């Protein structure tokens, strides 16, 4: 999970149960008008399998940055990330009345890029060789979605 979410950044870890609990405790103090983190759960058993967040929400420009991580490897490829991202986009475009949301990953994370496109995000740009994973360099890939695209795709605002 950490490898894919952080691009293998060696300064990110270690990720321990205590570190994750501390992260979530800190999120409870966030101002939900600007940022918040949600737990992604398996509906069948309530098991936490990842998280989705938004941050840098700017009500003046109607924009926010989102993120999604499915950390349980046995749940990868099951559509959980796409579903969570779609729910988050619906919330931001609907309840928060945003006009644009964006997210970024690295070019080696093909699974994430497929999920982003499946939800309706469009690749908007690349920062060439901007992400180091081990001894290799990958592009940083920016994706965005506009309210009009969301509405055309889902019929919702």
Provide an overview of this structure.
By secondary structure, this protein is an alpha+beta fold. It has a single domain (2-154), classed as 3-Layer(aba) Sandwich (Aminopeptidase). Helices cover 31% and strands 35% of the residues. The chain is built from 5 helices and 6 strands; from the N terminus they run H-H-E-E-E-H-E-H-E-E-H. The chain has helices at residues 2-6, 17-27, 80-94, 110-119, 147-154; strands at residues 36-41, 48-58, 63-70, 100-106, 122-133, 136-146. A 6-stranded mixed β-sheet has the order 1-2-3-4-6-5. Helix 3 (80-94) packs across helix 4. The mean pLDDT is 87.
Short recap of the structure:
The chain has helices at 2-6, 17-27, 80-94, 110-119, 147-154, and strands at 36-41, 48-58, 63-70, 100-106, 122-133, 136-146. The chain contains five helices and six strands. The chain has a six-stranded mixed sheet.
């Amino acid at each position: 999970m950490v490898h894919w979410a952080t691009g293998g950044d060696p300064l990110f870890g270690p990720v321990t149960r205590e570190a994750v609990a501390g992260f979530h405790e800190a999120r409870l103090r966030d101002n939900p008008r600007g940022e918040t983190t949600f737990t992604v759960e398996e509906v069948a058993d309530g098991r936490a399998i990842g998280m989705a967040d938004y941050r840098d929400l700017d009500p003046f420009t109607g924009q926010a940055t989102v993120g999604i991580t499915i950390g349980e490897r046995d749940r990868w490829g099951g559509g959980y990330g796409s579903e969570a991202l779609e729910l988050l986009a619906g919330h931001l475009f609907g309840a928060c009345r945003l006009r644009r949301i964006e997210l970024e990953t690295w070019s080696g994370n093909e699974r994430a890029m497929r999920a982003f496109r499946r939800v309706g995000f469009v690749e908007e740009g690349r920062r060439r060789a901007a992400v180091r994973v081990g001894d290799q360099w990958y592009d940083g890939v920016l994706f965005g979605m506009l309210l009009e695209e969301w509405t055309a795709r889902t019929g919702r605002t």
